[in-house]
Amino acid sequence: MITNILDVLDLNGKLTDEQINFVQSKIEVLELEKNEYVLKIGQVCSFIGFVSKGLVMFYNIADNGEEKVCEFIKENDWVSQYQSMITETKSSIEIKTLEPTTLLKISFLNLKLILDEIPLVEKSFKQVIDKFLLKMLERSHSFQNLKAEERYAIFVKENSELIQRVPQYYIASFLGIAPQSLSRIRKNS
């Protein structure tokens, strides 16, 4: 299970056994139930996590109390409130599980130790951050330039398995539309 992180960082076969053991010693395995919070608004994020199994959702709370979905994170991807972690400020978003989830958690302190100790991990981790930033830029571009139908088509193409795993009202929120609009778009697709 823990070797999944090394697979994603493309490090299997590139690290010594001692380095692998060092990385693995810094990982905490969390078994979380559905609807369990990983991070709440107002907490300072002090970790980066890797979803080994399950599904989590990032969201913020609008003034009217409505959850506004920012992102879904599924297996073999990273989860953190990076801004809060790096700046050591309170998070403006919440992260919770949508399914029972196995999260491999590395504290920010342990992450710094790993990156300092093993430069190859730092290089691979930078690629993870770059990928995340590009994904956020693409999402911003789609909201500014694409119609709801186009955003939905991209979502289905890139996340077809999530259609069955995520409640439709969360998908609608993620797309920035009302649930009724999503029903109409799905009917016309």
UniProtKB/TrEMBL annotation:
Record-linked InterPro entries: cNMP-bd_dom (IPR000595), cNMP-bd_dom_sf (IPR018490), RmlC-like_jellyroll (IPR014710)
Pfam families per record: cNMP_binding
Species in which this protein is naturally found: Maribacter hydrothermalis
Record's protein name: Cyclic nucleotide-binding domain-containing protein
The Cyclic nucleotide-binding domain, residue ranges: 31-107
Highest classification ranks of the organism: Bacteria, Pseudomonadati, Bacteroidota, Flavobacteriia, Flavobacteriales
